[in-house]
Amino acid sequence: MDCGVQSAGLGFSAAERDAYARDGYIVRTGVMRPEEIEALRNLVEVVIAGVIARAERPGAGPQFSMADGHRMQFSSSTVIQWEWADGSRAVRLIEPFTHLHTGFERLWDDVRFTAPMRDALSVEAVGPYTCKLNFKRPGEGSEFPWHQDYTYWYAFTPETADEIATAILFLDDADANNGALRVLAGSHRRGPARRNRADPTRFLADPARLDLSTERVIEAPAGALLIFPALMVHCSTPNASPRQRRAMLLSFQPAGRPLQRELEWHPERVDALP
After folding, report:
1. Does this model's pTM top 0.85?
2. Rounded alpha-carbon distances, angstroms, from residue 55 to 73, 74, 188
3. What secondary structure does DSSP assign to 156-214, as a single string?
4. 10-residue block means of pLDDT along the chain (274 residues)?
5. Strand, helix or coil at 101?
6. Which fold has domain 5-255?
7. What are the helix (H) ranges across 24-68?
8. What is the spatial distance between Cα 71 and Cα 219, in angstroms, rounded to a whole number?
9. Can you tell me the distance from the alpha carbon of 27 to that of 219, in angstroms, rounded to the nearest whole number?
10. CB 86 within 8 A of CB 73
11. Is 41 in contact with 68 (CB distance < 8 Å)?
12. Closest CA to 246 of 182, 173, 176
């Protein structure tokens, strides 16, 4: 559901509330002005260049590989996920990122995020859980298969993993050609999705057990905001275009709870899930 610029900075309208309950997401366009988005894009590129420089210096933070072979590294008090292709020097995402600049940090208190998030979570006050800076560079940005954020959150906080929602701010126009997000509308109402037992990480959803007939491509302009809950099944395709597809992901939870980085990671917990 595209709610348009008139909703920016407000809580859910009646139509948004219905759409969020039914489909599991809303899209608001025009949430940020073009000059704000341009400033954020410029800041993102400066910050990520610094992150890469620190990560590549001698004695930088340790690198490791996930069970599926994807490369990760600790550096700049963040976790870097490098692009999946062998030899790539591109970053696909970093988590967290708002601590890297005050221009990012203030987004946590921006009413354009917090007002709809209070309604998404049905609480009086919200606070940060985690955040990601996502990149799909032209011709190189890789896919991310079907999954729920819930499964990853469960490894940190199993009791409250379903009480987290994410707002994605699009820094570039997103469409089917440059790796737009895809969601399964209504999938959030079905609980934890069956996991793909062939996935070595144990976190991905089993596509053979998903109702793909409800798939929707989230095509949104720069400055738009997508909001969805932890149980929403979603994926993204590769960026086969010559255009950027960058986005900021801020995940909120009820106020007063610990940040993800303050919790312990226990991936074995997901074995209790379907």
Report:
1. yes
2. 8, 8, 37
3. T-TTTTTS-EEEEEESS-B-TTTT-EEEETTGGGG-SPPB-TT-TTS-SB-GGGS-GGG
4. 57 97 98 98 97 91 79 93 83 96 97 97 98 95 94 98 98 96 98 92 94 97 98 96 97 98 96 94
5. coil
6. Jelly Rolls (2.60.120)
7. 34-56
8. 29
9. 9
10. no
11. no
12. 173
Is the separation of the CB atoms in 224 and 170 below 8 Å?
yes
CA atoms within 13 A on the CB side of 261: 14
Residues 6 or more apart from 270 whose CB is under 8 A from it? 151, 154, 155, 195, 202, 203
Helix (H) or strand (E) segment spanning residue 114: helix 111-121
Which of 85, 59, 87, 84 shows the shortest CA–CA distance to 74? 59
Q: How many residues does the chain have?
A: 274
pLDDT digits (tens, 9 = 90+) for 58-77: 888 888 877 777 789 999 99
What values do phi and psi take at 70, rounded to 5?
A: -70, 140
Nearest to 195 by CA among 164, 233, 141: 233
Q: For the chain, what is the total number of helices (H) and then of strands (E)?
A: 5, 13
